[in-house]
Amino acid sequence: MFCKYILYNSDTTTTPKRQAYVYPKPQWVVQKNDIVYVMDVSLRNLYHGKKTTVVTRDISVEVDLVKGMADGQRVTYAGKGLNLPGHAPGDLIVIINRVDYPFYKQLSAGNLQCEVEVDHKMAQGGGDICIRHPSGNIINLELLPGEIPSPGYQKVLSKMGQISSDKTQTGDLYVKFTIYFPHANVTI
Hints:
The protein is mainly beta. The protein contains two helices and 15 strands. A hairpin with a 5-residue loop joins β11 (127-132) and β12 (138-143). The protein is elongated, with a radius of gyration of 23 Å.
């Protein structure tokens, strides 16, 4: 969302109140005869795949989000755009805009990264960590004593990332560790 403008109440007799008028970004725009629709999709929905409906003006189209679709990928529906007299019918172009899933971000095609905060005792002595994967499954990660040598250390879980859209490859999951020192209230 973006703010078009912000107004402040100028009434000085009471406590000043703030009012903000927020307008969402337009989801679709018209370019010539084509309608370009930007669809916000969560990483979880891209992981599972999903069918969703796009509604623009008087047009309603069901979009099939295939597992592993990439950010910025375009899906074109021929003839579903504007129908202006004397012109060929335009297209509906749906652009996938990936919205980051809490705790996860996508590094590259299929590779995911999550950041886990552990206290200094677990970093030195090891232990078990449970992570909820975008698939909904729980991953039990066993840390050996001294396995996290320094802050920023990454453990790679092979084939635990996102599947590619052609379903031939699965990316890796990178677990990045930060170390928390509770007595100093510092995370590094």
